[in-house]
């Protein structure tokens, strides 16, 4: 039986992320952008609410604007770049954690879909990939949950 962790260990090993740059940095909104080998531009957006300003929600989607999230979040490009895109998103998460000591949590939201099980399947992939690649931050842990991958500072 092949497990998701085993597949990620093989496929996700040694994947070099795309170059990325920060495009927005404010107390409640931080955004990065990168372009894939197939010239698709992505936005990686972190935003927090007023009730928990130290907990950021993470979404990423193909696009050029931090404003167009609603109609882009469900787009799946499926051009064979999934692990390189995930590697880039995780690199951006690591950069965010390194640069912002006041952040105590990140919620990585799986795809919004009407297909049964799509959220759970995508969330498991995110959790497994993040778990494998966040080991250099021992005081950050992934909490159990469904549909939302919760990464929290523990110390």
What does this structure look like?
The chain has 155 residues and is of the alpha+beta class. The chain has a single domain (4-153), classed as Aminopeptidase, CATH 3.40.630. 27% of the residues lie in helices and 28% in strands. The protein has 3 helices and 7 strands, in the order H-E-E-E-E-H-E-H-E-E. It has a 7-stranded mixed sheet with strand order 1-2-3-4-5-7-6. Helix 1 (4-11) crosses helix 3 (118-133). The longest helix has 18 residues, at 82-99.
Give the secondary structure arrangement, pairings included.
Elements: H1 4-11, E1 20-26, E2 29-35, E3 41-47, E4 55-62, H2 82-99, E5 105-109, H3 118-133, E6 140-143, E7 148-153
Parallel strand pairs: 4-5
Antiparallel strand pairs: 1-2, 2-3, 3-4, 5-7, 6-7
Helix pairs in contact: 1-3
CATH class: Alpha Beta
Strand content: 25-35%
Query: How many discrete structural domains?
Result: 1
- Could you say what the CATH topology is called? Aminopeptidase
Using DSSP, what is the number of strands?
7
Question: Mean pLDDT, as a whole number?
Answer: 80
| CATH architecture descriptor name | 3-Layer(aba) Sandwich
Low-confidence runs of at least 5 consecutive residues: none
Strand line-up in the sheet with most strands:
1-2-3-4-5-7-6
Largest sheet: 7 strands, mixed
Structural class by helix and strand composition: alpha+beta
Give me the oligomer status.
Answer: single chain
Q: Over the alpha carbons, how many angstroms does the gyration radius reach?
A: 15 Å
Number of H/I helices: 3
Task: State the helical fraction.
Answer: 25-40%
């Amino acid at each position: 039986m092949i497990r998701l962790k085993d597949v990620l260990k093989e496929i996700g090993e040694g994947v070099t992320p795309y170059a990325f740059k920060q495009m927005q940095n404010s107390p409640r909104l931080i955004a990065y952008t990168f372009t894939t080998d197939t010239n698709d531009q992505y936005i990686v957006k972190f935003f927090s609410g007023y009730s928990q300003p130290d907990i950021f929600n993470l979404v990423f989607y193909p696009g050029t604007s931090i404003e167009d999230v609603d109609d882009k979040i469900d787009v799946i490009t499926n051009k064979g770049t999934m692990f390189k895109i995930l590697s880039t998103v995780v690199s951006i998460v690591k950069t965010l954690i390194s640069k912002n000591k006041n952040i105590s949590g990140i919620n990585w939201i799986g795809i919004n879909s009407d297909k049964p099980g799509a959220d759970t399947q995508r969330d498991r992939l995110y959790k497994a990939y993040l778990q494998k690649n966040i080991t250099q931050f021992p005081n950050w842990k992934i909490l159990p949950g469904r549909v939302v991958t919760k990464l929290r500072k523990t110390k």
